[in-house]
Amino acid sequence: xxxxxxxxxxxxxxxxxxxxxxxxxxxxxxxxxxxxxxxxxxxxxxxxxxxxxxxxxxxxxxxxxxxxxxxxxxxxxxxxxxxxxxxxxxxxxxxxxxxxxxxxxxxxxxxxxxxxxxxxxxxxxxxxxxxxxxxxxxxxxxxxxxxxxxxxxxxxxxxxxxxxxxxxxxxxxxxxxxxxxxxxxxxxxxxxxxxxxxxxxxxxxxxxxxxxxxxxxxxxxxxxxxxxxxxxxxxxxxxxxxxxxxxxxxxxxxxxxxxxxxxxxxxxxxxxxxxxxxxxxxxxxxxxxxxxxxxxxxxxxxxxxxxxxxxxxxxxxxxxxxxxxxxxxxxxxxxxxxxxxxxxxxxxxxxxxxxxxxxxxxxxxxxxxxxxxxxxxxxxxxxxxxxxxxxxxxxxxxxxxxxxxxxxxxxxxxxxx
Length: 417
Hints:
Layout: E1 3-9, H1 15-18, H2 25-36, E2 41-48, E3 52-59, H3 66-74, H4 79-82, E4 87-90, H5 91-102, H6 114-128, H7 134-153, H8 163-175, E5 182-186, H9 190-201, E6 206-211, H10 214-224, E7 227-230, H11 234-238, E8 243-246, H12 257-266, E9 272-276, E10 293-297, H13 302-310, H14 313-366, H15 371-400, H16 403-414
Parallel strand pairs: 5-6, 5-8, 6-7, 8-9, 9-10
Antiparallel strand pairs: 1-3, 1-4, 2-3
């Protein structure tokens, strides 16, 4: 029952590739159903964020990369175009990868805390759709514990930074004082909330939250002392916005070149700083070609993020020590779990042999055979059947000089009763 982690992330692929294999919430139930009904897949959890799409699966021993082909087929992407960007880990490497992700060591912003919540959400969705059983259940619960331990025992989470924080930092670099600037936030999810709180902490002049569901926008706006509008009002609000940050789950761009050009004319070409944190992108790439627009995607924030990374590298080294130890602990559980399965199968086979021998013995007794003869026959049949398999294996081992198997069989024979 090997563990597999297969995915694509900000390190291996640009945003235009990542957005092709993003799973939106409406697709997740069907995706999980399809994944666990692949012949080789027993369990599955799908993690899909702005920076990564990953499949964590427990598969059969004969697994032959069916997940890669399924991912391509599900998103209608030619395998050859996707394959160069895909990574795949097995067994302990898959465990280590999940623990790194849960600890924020694999994030664009080293040590960022949001990914742990995203993993929990992905796991809860998989559980709700019955695609998680024993192995992945244990793996993810262990991963959550490791993520918390790393944040508790190291400084990886000190001076909180994130993609949202990087966007605010870049805003300050461009505008300096933000107290007279107006921010338009598109979306009302966790990333937008985080960015809005960072802006509020920097004494931004005003914040407007635009969202498809006005009630959700209003709920967030009430917490921040901001204004809430529907997503249809974005062109009107864009005229007043100095800063635009967008992060939604829309499959199509929300803000296009035409609406932005119109707003710039009404603004008399006062510049607008835009950050598109969504995958797929919310803002058309052509918007970045306009004069007086400074458009950044999540990939463009990497330089800002790298500065924050340096202060956390020492903590990351400590975190890896914790992760390596926990990988060993989980591997021990896996081995124990596997041995328990094998022992159960062995006992089930022995029970079948016992019942078969008892059936024959009872038949002999019903035929009024001598009791001693029946007992001798029972013991002989039971012994022969139980030793049949080990005898064949011992002969093969001796013939092939398979010393480890010979030693194992000797230890079983000589084990005290």
